[in-house]
Amino acid sequence: MVLSLRKFPLGTRASWSIASRVLAAIFGGYALAFAFTAMLALLLPVSRPNAAVAACLFGFIPYLLAILWVFSVRSATRAWAGLFTVTLSCAAVAASLYFLKA
């Protein structure tokens, strides 16, 4: 049986773009949520266990926003670049807070 390209409305470029966005949403969103959680746990002015629990509870918000944002931007490249920038910023703030408190 021969498959024709007419059965598949999306081209390979669009398929790779969607696959890249899905990967960005899953893995980039997870990295962002992790970096945000680490940053928030260090910023909250409560005891360490309470800060960790509260930060974990609020960590789902940036994950959800990352998933929504990845599929709303114009290209997959912008999605990856934006996630990388925000994740790196949160991680840098978390690292500086960790080393300044130590």
Strand content: under 5%
Distance between the termini: 66 Å
How many domain modules? 1
**Segments where pLDDT lies below 50 for 5+ residues?**
none
Query: What's the main sheet like?
Result: none
Order of helices and strands: HHHH
Q: How many helical stretches?
A: 4
Tell me the Rg in angstroms: 18 Å
Helix content: over 70%
How many beta-strand runs? 0
Average of pLDDT: 90
Tell me the overall shape: elongated
Instruction: Name the structural class.
Output: mainly alpha
Could you write a compact summary of the structure shown?
With 102 residues, the chain is mainly alpha-helical. It is built from 4 helices and no strands. The protein has helices at residues 12-43, 48-58, 60-70, 76-101.
Question: How are the SSEs placed, and which strands pair?
Answer:
Blueprint: H1 12-43, H2 48-58, H3 60-70, H4 76-101
Helix pairs in contact: 1-2, 1-3, 1-4
Walk me through this protein's architecture.
This protein has four helices and no strands. The protein has helices at residues 12-43, 48-58, 60-70, 76-101. The longest helix has 32 residues, at 12-43. The mean pLDDT is 90.
Give the tags.
elongated; 78% helix; 102 residues; mainly alpha
